[in-house]
Amino acid sequence: MTTKCEDCPLRPLSQFLRFSAEELAFMERFKTGEMQVQPGTHLLTQGTRSPQLFTTLSGLGLRHKTLVDGSRQVISFVMPGDFLGLQAGVMGEMGHSVEAVTDMTLCVFNRADIWSLFKTLPERGYALAHLAAIEEQFLGDALATVGQRPAYDKIAWAMARYFHRAKAVGIAKGNTCPLPFRQQHLADALGLSLVHTNKVLGRLRKEGVLVWTDDVLTIRDMDRLEQIAALDDGPPPRPLI
Amino acid sequence: MTTKCEDCPLRPLSQFLRFSAEELAFMERFKTGEMQVQPGTHLLTQGTRSPQLFTTLSGLGLRHKTLVDGSRQVISFVMPGDFLGLQAGVMGEMGHSVEAVTDMTLCVFNRADIWSLFKTLPERGYALAHLAAIEEQFLGDALATVGQRPAYDKIAWAMARYFHRAKAVGIAKGNTCPLPFRQQHLADALGLSLVHTNKVLGRLRKEGVLVWTDDVLTIRDMDRLEQIAALDDGPPPRPLI
DNA sequence: CGCGAACTTGATGTAACTCAAGGCGAGTGG
DNA sequence: CCACTCGCCTTGAGTTACATCAAGTTCGCG
Predict the structure, then answer these.
(1) Domains of chain B: total
(2) Same domain, B35 and B117
(3) Where do the HTH crp-type domain residues begin and end (chains A, B) (predicted)?
């Protein structure tokens, strides 16, 4: 039983741009099916061409990369609404892998159809570029955090980001949201060791900032968290000549 | 005196995809002018909307981000052929700044025209998405390097990447290329201190891997460099059922 | 000649790493 | 139902790859 785009539970969320009737009809045709996967499933693999692209309907996952020495870099956490496989779509090859962490439901598209998307409905092509730009911005922030900040700030930043995204896609309830990852995943995302990550999480817990237990994240002091997590300033003061 | 797209010195490079006559004509119209800037010029500023987008014709620059605590993250080095301002173009706001490091010549486009690009010539919209995907892949690699690898490997990786790109855009000569940045820039790109960066560069010099003096990078032992710089494996072995 | 920008080098400090061990809950099998 | 394993989290002790501090050198420039 597949979901019609018209009935997509994500579309009404304020986080997403509105669809025109025409776009809706187009996406309905573009979508070739729906897919259910279990935790641990590899959806896309780094260095390979995938014939399929996905949009996450529900569930959570991970984008990650394995290096020659065997270490892993988690690129980002995958949430409902995320488009998976842009690189495969336009370049042919993926630079990272994508893996399901919970049960996931995904819309499936054909890689080969992506060109027709640009051609027949430029609005959708533009939307794809928009998504790519958002991803680029996120990766810039992640790079800055991993490169420049101490462990305490890194973890606060990651948790704050995650929580806000969770809220935006409607999986948060009050000041809590599901966080079905392992501490090792977070460590791999931020370039920290598991042990150190654990200690810093303990500190944030003791300080009453946040608690992460049983796959649930609870924000105890949002103001404080935001303050620690803050990455860059707004626009600089305007010059006067 | 502006360069016609037809005469663009970059276009023939093997690194770039071919243009159709139609695309060429379109880009000629899309381009609103040419711009010359001096070292130190801020082309785009994080957190602002820019009415102009650019493609680098010649010269070198930096994408970077300034954090609340004043530290800087260099996102990437800007080379001829790089498109600047995608984020401003499709999202409105830049997540990082772009600054000229040498004299630069740039093609100038109007932000407002970007939508017409998708609409009237989808091939060009697709090209833009392609660029964005390449950037995303690069940022993933950078994140993995900064997050997981020791200083020695980071620097080797950065230098190898830089040299290959330089070669691809035709600014390398033999085993040398211009590298008009400061050690501080490299340090800020890799999340290292200036002092440590300096020491590791010294080590690579002593070991006969590479030399960076007077704004010129010389690769002394490419095989060794590649070996240190290697980031990830190719595609994994294929499973058999 | 004095000054600032960039590079270099040595000494000292520390944030985060590794190693090692133990606890706890869930599953499994005798 | 208990013994065992396994995955995950937690904590302490010792180590190290970096950072920071502090000079000193070189070079171009006003």
Answers:
(1) 2
(2) yes
(3) 153-223
Dihedral, A198, A203, A207, A211 alpha carbons, nearest 10: 0
Q: For residue A234, tell me if it sits in a domain.
A: no
Which tokens is B138 given? Answer: 């690069």
Can you give the distance from the CA of residue B115 to the C1' of nucleotide C14 in angstroms? 52
**What residues contact residue B60 under an 8 Å CB cut-off, 6+ apart?**
B77, B78, B79, B100, B101, B102, B104, B178, B180, B181
CATH code of residue B200 = 1.10.10.10
Q: Is A193 on the interface with B (CB under 8 A)?
A: no
pLDDT of residue A58: 97
Q: Cβ of residue A148 near strand C, that is under 7 Å? A: no
pLDDT at residue B2, as a whole number: 82
CA-angle at B35, arms to B33 and B41, nearest 5°? 145
B240 in any annotated domain: no
| Residues A111 and A66 grouped into a single domain | yes
Residue where a domain stops, chosen among A145, A166, A187: A145
- Cα A72 to Cα B134, B147, B190: the distances in Å are 21, 9, 18
pLDDT band at residue A236 using 50, 70 and 90 as cut-offs: low
Q: Hey, are the CB atoms on A126 and B126 less than 8 Å from each other?
A: no
**Nearest C-alpha in A relative to B186:** A147
Give chain A's count of helices (H) and strands (E).
Answer: 8, 11
Report CA torsion sign: B216, B176, B159, A85: positive
Q: Are residues A129 and A154 in the same domain?
A: no
3-state SS class at B172: coil
One domain for residues A103 and A208: no
Would the CB atoms of B67 and A149 count as touching at under 8 Å?
yes
d(CA B83, CA B29): 17
D29 C1' to A45 CA distance, Å: 56
* Residue to substitute from A66, A73, A134, A161, interface B, most B β-carbons within 10 A: A73
Q: Which of A110, A145, A180 is the last residue of a domain?
A: A145
Q: Token digits for A234?
A: 């707004």
pLDDT at residue B238, as a whole number: 65
Domain encompassing residue A220:
150-229
pLDDT at residue B234, rounded to an integer: 67
